[in-house]
Amino acid sequence: MHNYEIVLIIHPDLDETAVNGVIEKTKGWITEAGGTVEGVDVWGRRKMAFLIRKQREGHYVLIKAQMLPASTAELERNLRFLEPVLRFLVTVQE
């Protein structure tokens, strides 16, 4: 198991309930793959450096998790098709 950090930028027009739904869905995918979620840090709504899908702002969320390296591809595929997620980044922590 490796430690990962997953950063999500979620569409700014969503309310807190919808943002929490996206976070819970992501956490569910991690646990379904046999991983564990170590923590969730909601950074809130922030201005982005450039436009993404015609949006200037987004809800930023950091998820710290432990997963098998093989399960990251499936997580990235699921996040790519999740409509409210504007951008995501999955990185390994040393």
Overview of this protein structure:
- The mean pLDDT is about 95.
- With about 90 residues, the chain is an alpha+beta fold.
- It has a four-stranded antiparallel sheet, covered by helices on one side.
- Helix content is about 30%, strand content about 50%.
SSE inventory with pairings:
Blueprint: E1 2-10, H1 16-32, E2 36-52, E3 55-67, H2 72-81, E4 85-93
Antiparallel strand pairs: 1-3, 1-4, 2-3
Structural class: alpha+beta
* Bulk shape: globular
The radius of gyration computed from the alpha-carbon positions, rounded to a whole number of angstroms, is: 13 Å
- Describe the main β-sheet briefly: 4 strands, antiparallel
Query: Strand-residue fraction?
Result: over 45%
Distance between the termini: 12 Å
Please tell me the overall pLDDT: 93
Order of strands across the main sheet: 2-3-1-4
Number of strands: 4
| Total of helices | 2
- The ordered string of helix (H) and strand (E) elements is EHEEHE
Helix content: 25-40%
Unreliable parts: none
In short:
The chain is α+β, with helices and mostly antiparallel strands.
